[in-house]
Write a structure and sequence with these properties.
Elements (H helix, E strand, L loop, with lengths): L1 H27 L10 E5 L16 E4 L2 E8 L3 E8 L4 E10 L4 E7 L3 E8 L13 E13 L2 E4 L5 E6 L5 E4 L4 E12 L3 E13 L8 E2 L13 E6 L3 E8 L4 E8 L11 E7 L8 E5 L8 E6 L2 H4 L6 E9 L4 E9 L5 E8 L4 E8 L15 E8 L11 E4 L7 E5 L11 E7 L4 E7 L13 E11 L10 E6 L10 E11 L5 E7 L10 E3 L5 E8 L5 E8 L4 E11 L9 E11 L10 E6 L10 E11 L5 E7 L10 E3 L5 E8 L5 E8 L4 E11 L9 E11 L10 E6 L10 E11 L5 E7 L10 E3 L5 E8 L5 E8 L4 E11 L4
Antiparallel strand pairs: 1-29, 2-3, 3-4, 4-5, 6-7, 7-8, 8-9, 8-10, 11-12, 12-13, 13-14, 15-16, 16-17, 17-18, 19-20, 20-21, 21-22, 23-24, 24-25, 25-26, 27-28, 28-29, 30-37, 31-36, 32-35, 32-37, 33-34, 33-36, 38-45, 39-44, 40-43, 40-45, 41-42, 41-44, 46-53, 47-52, 48-51, 48-53, 49-50, 49-52
């Protein structure tokens, strides 16, 4: 492995030279000039190491409305600097930290004091191990802050350790003690080298350091170029992580404040990840003390670029420790083919994001020579709850076309917010210049206007299979407000209602608890059938929804919530106004819709609905059809779309929720696309206020458009998923909170159900569509959209099935 990396390094330098030469030639021939990203800062000389280097360390902190940094000053040493955002320049405060040239440091601001651990650097690598040097002291500096000035406290610096090390990081426990960890190499080329993970701790406040000791776990001896890092997290916890390329492991050892730090019984050790090529000496840890779950986020690098030539393997990964389970989850940050290195992360709890930063070749370079080549700094983001990063290196945030040598990004231990903005720093050790990126962090607006929609992660609120079925001609109510993150006061909810195991023919009526039962229906069924339908219904004053089993037999009912509408008097365009369910059309009272013919009904200006509305939500029921076919619903007077809202077979009674724009005459047109007559019934559930929607959560109807049809490609595999683009297409913006679409299952090979959810989020244990072999069945789906603009559909069955998605509209997210 060592020889392979050496050979790659030498050969790839030639590749890089060719790439760079090609880039220069292209520019000389008139190609578009590269873009500069970020801000160049002070020049430096005389530093022993690149001044922002050391993967686990943090050189930045936020205090008193400003960003501060530990920066090298030519001819003097390490100083405290402040960022002047008005001019985007770093200003030297004149406070000298350490004048030693061969040191690096880790910083920690605890809200009242600044702690800086400065250590002498000896870097080992796998080809040339170097022992730590005795008599090379690591010190802790503590500063008080007042009136814009930092002052070194009496009794500092305090001695942490007496040997040099490749890295050193610090953390503060709940007693106020400062902890430090590092690795220490001993030995020689003849006897061999041993690397050992050390820890040490101070008294509260950083004074009175103990004698350094080996972390008391079973295997504290990684390879000579491995390193360690430390973090405080959760409830009175300290965690130490280290890479171990000898076993392909990243180790994680934890202890509780108040226990004996030197006792083996006080430490619990486990692997965060383990496998051939899964460890390398790149670590960066972050936590949130305000996070009640105590999660720890760790960006680590693998060695899979060395053990394999496959460009699709993980290069940088995010490990998330969840104390509740005691285990780690793993997400890909970038692949070996991206040629990235030196990851750093920052937590952004206001936006629920983890920001990942990495070095990669400049954006003008196609491909890459080898991982770790300096060039540019890139940023990627993902949800903290379910971190799924988009493909590629990410967005360049620091890049210099004149010197593609930026490397060694460094960040802060602290979380960022809308107040702090985001600042990260790096250095170009060829041009000997600092670089940094500084940008604001906006918080995604949340819906607040009455009648606007708030999507939620689908969750099951009712399942009578866990209790008892609903009796014949009886009711069951379930709590829809004040649970599962839904406010106690909402105007209406959207949920998927599934009927299963009914004993007789019948239908379900959904309405607000405590109100008059309407003479409408939401779900029709026959004995033994499992059938779903989306329901939009007002919520009672007690926060409940009542379901009536209008049949002569028992049945089980399942309700999976999709979102809610904010309570109050709707007034803004795109806000939803629920109405007491009212029947607007029933052709059984007149004549059926003819074969390949249409019928229209008045949906605006009746039943309390204004004459001018943008769209309506109604339950469409087909009954007594004479042939196979489907119904198309659309705004009267507009072009008929090539989509569908309802599929049926002869003699079937089948319902489906429809959200559709209203024509200028206030009417909806229903096309009977079959060669036989059929009766159709429309029960209104509410409407959207007309005008141009502009606030978060407002609904924007679109002309129905087909976004997915697997009949044109390949069916969804058994127990597999298919994704489709729902944002940035068909007139839908790139940023939306949720969409409404009609999902049709056709030609399924087995029994099963479909689960729809936002791409990049955790798959819920809910359902949107149930089916049997050979059945064609539709259902309306309201679902959040992933950060990549996609929806995932899971085929929960042992056979393949085709899926069709016809969009009806979207809800504004409030972000561009």
């Amino acid at each position: 492995m060592k020889m392979k990396r050496t050979v790659n390094w030498l050969s790839q330098i030639l590749v890089l030279a060719t790439i760079v030469a090609g880039t220069v030639l292209a520019a000389a021939n008139g190609a578009e000039a590269a873009t500069t990203y970020g801000h160049p800062s002070i020049s430096y000389s005389g530093a022993g190491k690149p001044p922002t280097s050391d993967k686990p360390q943090s050189k930045l902190w936020w205090n008193d409305g400003s960003w501060w940094a530990d920066m090298w000053t030519t001819g003097s040493g390490w100083h405290i600097y402040r960022l002047d955002r008005s001019s985007e320049t770093w200003v030297d405060t004149g406070v000298l930290i350490d004048s030693r040239t061969n040191t690096l440091a880790d910083t920690l601001w605890d809200g009242s004091h600044l702690y800086i651990a400065s250590h002498v650097v000896t870097v080992s690598n796998e080809n040339t191990p170097l022992p730590s040097i005795p008599g090379q002291y690591a010190y802790l500096y503590r500063y008080s802050y007042s009136g814009g000035q930092y002052t070194l406290d009496s009794g500092f610096p305090a001695l942490i350790a007496t040997n040099s090390s490749e890295s050193m990081t610090i953390a503060q426990d709940t007693t106020g003690a400062i902890w430090a960890t590092w690795t220490q190499v001993a030995g020689d080329p003849v006897a061999g080298f041993t690397n050992t993970v050390y820890v040490n701790k101070s008294a509260p406040g950083g004074t009175g350091w103990a004698t350094p000791y080996i972390i008391p776990v079973s295997n504290p001896n990684p390879a000579p170029d491995d390193i360690s890092a430390i973090v405080a997290y959760g409830t009175k916890k300290i965690g130490v992580m280290w890479s171990d390329q000898l076993t392909g492991s990243v180790w994680w050892a934890t202890r509780t404040d108040g226990t004996d730090p030197t006792a083996t019984s006080s430490w619990k050790v486990q692997t965060a990840t383990k496998g051939n090529g899964l460890a390398d000496d790149h670590l960066n840890l972050k936590s949130l003390q305000s996070d009640s779950s105590g999660r720890v986020f760790a960006a680590v690098k693998t060695s899979l670029d060395v053990t394999s030539t496959d460009p699709t393997l993980d290069q940088l990964v995010l490990l998330v420790f969840k104390p509740g389970t005691g285990s780690f989850s793993k997400s890909t940050i970038s692949l070996t083919g991206d040629c990235t290195s030196r990851p750093q992360i920052v937590l952004d709890p206001e936006n629920n994001l983890v920001h990942a930063f990495q070095t990669g070749p400049s954006s003008t370079v196609s491909g890459c020579a080898f991982d770790g080549v300096s060039g540019s700094i890139y940023e990627k983001t993902a949800s903290m709850d379910n971190p799924v990063f988009a493909a590629g290196r990410g967005k360049p945030i620091m890049e210099d076309p004149n010197s593609p040598n930026i490397n060694d990004v460094t960040t802060s231990k602290q979380p960022v917010s809308n107040k702090t903005g985001l600042v990260v720093m790096a250095s170009d050790d060829v041009a000997k210049r600092y670089w940094f990126a500084d940008r604001p962090l906006g918080v995604t607006p949340v819906p607040t206007a009455p009648g606007t929609f708030v999507p939620v992660t689908p969750i099951r609120l009712l399942d009578t299979r866990n209790t008892a079925p609903v009796g014949a001609f009886s009711t069951v109510s379930f709590q829809a407000a004040g649970v599962a993150g839904i406010p106690s006061k909402v105007s209406a909810v959207v949920f998927n209602l599934t009927v299963t195991q009914p004993q007789a023919y019948g239908h379900i009526i959904a309405y607000a608890s405590g109100t008059t039962r309407p003479t409408t229906s939401n779900e029709n069924f026959v004995p033994g059938q499992t059938v779903p339908n989306s329901v939009t219904v007002p919520v009672g004053a007690d926060g409940k929804v009542t379901l009536v089993n209008n049949s002569g037999g028992t049945t089980h009912l399942i309700a999976d919530i999709a979102g809610y509408y904010i309570a109050g008097t709707p007034a803004v365009p795109g806000a939803f106004v629920p109405v007491s369910p009212t029947r607007l059309l029933d052709t059984r009272n007149t004549a059926p819709a003819g074969a390949f013919s249409s019928v229209s009904f008045q949906a605006a200006g009746v039943a309390g609905i204004p004459a001018n509305v943008s769209a309506v939500v109604f339950n469409l029921t087909v009954t007594q059809p004479q042939s196979y076919g489907h119904i198309i619903a659309y705004a009267s007077g507009t072009t008929r779309p090539t989509t569908s809202n309802e599929n049926f077979v002869p003699g079937q009674t089948v319902p489906n929720s429809v959200t559709v724009p209203v024509g200028s005459d206030g009417k909806i047109t229903l096309v009977n696309n079959s060669n036989g007559t059929t009766h159709v019934i429309a029960d209104i559930g509410g409407y959207y206020i007309a005008g141009t929607p502009a606030v978060p959560g407002a609904f924007v109807p679109v002309s129905p458009t087909r976004l997915l049809d697997t009949r044109n490609t390949a069916p969804a595999g058994a127990f597999s998923s298919v994704s489709f683009q729902a944002a940035g297409v068909a007139g839908i913006p790139l940023k939306v909170s949720a969409i409404v679409f009609n999902l049709t299952v056709t030609q399924p090979q087995s029994y099963g159900h479909i689960t729809a959810y936002a791409s990049g989020t955790t798959r819920p244990s809910t359902s949107n569509e149930n089916f049997v072999p050979g059945q064609t069945v539709p259902n309306s789906v309201t679902v959040p959209v992933g950060s990549d603009g996609k929806i995932v559909l899971v085929n929960n069955s042992s056979g393949t099935t085709h899926l069709i998605a016809d969009v009806a509209g979207y809800f504004l997210s409030g972000t561009p």
